[in-house]
Design brief:
Two copies of one chain form a homodimer. The first copy, chain A, contains eight helices and eight strands; from the N terminus they run H-H-E-E-E-E-H-E-H-H-H-E-H-H-E-E. Chain A is α+β, with helices and mostly antiparallel strands and about 210 residues long. In chain A, the strands form two sheets. In chain A, strands 1, 2, 3, 4 and 5 form a five-stranded antiparallel beta sheet that branches. Chain A has a three-stranded antiparallel beta sheet with strand order 6-8-7. In chain A, a hairpin with a 2-residue loop joins strand 7 and strand 8. Chain A is elongated and about 55 Å long. The two termini of chain A are about 35 Å apart. The interface between A and B is large, with 36 and 36 residues. Chain A binds a DNA duplex (30 and 30 nucleotides) through helix 8.
Amino acid sequence: MREKLDNYFSFVFEKELLDEIEQVGTYKKLRENELLVDLGDKMKGVPLLLDGAIKIVREDKKGEEILLYFLERGDTCASSFASAITNGKCGIRAIAEKDSEIIFLPTEKLDDWLVKYKTWRNFVIDSYNVRLNEMMETIDTLAFMRMDERLYKYLTDKAQIMRETSLNTTHQEIAYDLHTSRVVISRLLKQLENEGKITLHRNKIEILEF
Amino acid sequence: MREKLDNYFSFVFEKELLDEIEQVGTYKKLRENELLVDLGDKMKGVPLLLDGAIKIVREDKKGEEILLYFLERGDTCASSFASAITNGKCGIRAIAEKDSEIIFLPTEKLDDWLVKYKTWRNFVIDSYNVRLNEMMETIDTLAFMRMDERLYKYLTDKAQIMRETSLNTTHQEIAYDLHTSRVVISRLLKQLENEGKITLHRNKIEILEF
DNA sequence: GCTGCTTAGTAACAAATGTTACACTTCTTA
DNA sequence: TAAGAAGTGTAACATTTGTTACTAAGCAGC
């Protein structure tokens, strides 16, 4: 764990903070599709993502969902930070998009560290900022783009996150993430294929153009 | 200024912090429709809203815009906090929705106060959380609601913020905020009027049902 | 092989939203 | 008061997105 921690955070946190994190943090491995945070959970800590990719999804009362963004290594979940500090409920769902490794930081330390470590203050503020920007990008996407553009952006973004040029997924899964129907996705995917940007296979989409 | 400051923040900040704010903060009055922050601005400070209402708007490259949310008294602009701390550009536009009063807090103090005052830490974290939640609500609205529902929500939300049951606005302005066309808004407003939820006048909409 | 399940393709239609065009009213101001 | 500007109402039509229904291909297990 210390090795991974050093790998991604030694340029972010000073040694004393890394030591503290090693002491009080709990390491956890996540399998692909494992649920990390569910809607309405109260967080007892904050996850630091050491490796992998986490999908953050929003769901409304009717059970309809939409993808908000992905977390990558080095990221933390601002929404659970919120929940942990205020002891409130979490408004999102977090699911491992592939096998991942995280460290859970206990709530009690979060405020102490804000006082003790400038790097922690920077990290927290920066995380919030990154997340706010991510949310704004999501809003741009929803407000300004048509479904075909959203779909193409989804495919290329996800390929980036997964570090693959082809995605193992179904049309139905994509439809859930973009909050539309399978038929619409099939239609638009076929269109993208005709434009030469992707090729379609069963359970797999190859991206030819980024 | 001290009086207004005490009015809304004496339960939020301790006396020492209020004193410091009074010393280093600059008071400013905003006229209705005055521009507070523009897209791409680099913030030299963070505004605390003492009174009034500020509209926060997002704009894409093509100049198309959409309303993100409103700030009320007691609020601060998380996005300018981001910009001030990281010295980056602000991704939003802030316009006074009615006459407002703000205090500008200089960048240099923001980090000091995080160390010195627990109430300031709470305020900053809380502001970010409120803003994240606000953004999620905006996303819900965009992803899950049809235009007629969005319009009705817009009207009632805005009435709440403005503390009025009737709004002085035009169909075109609403269309800008919801990122659609004037014709669509006129059509849906007429529909709401037929349902008995509002009555329409020139430059004015009365809300009958909340 | 056959059987059943999941995934994908596609047509036909429905609903929501966007666009263009024009008429009419109200307000402003020359 | 006449002329123009701004705001509104509405029809007709185009485009985008959603829905239903059905077909067929690929795969797993027997």
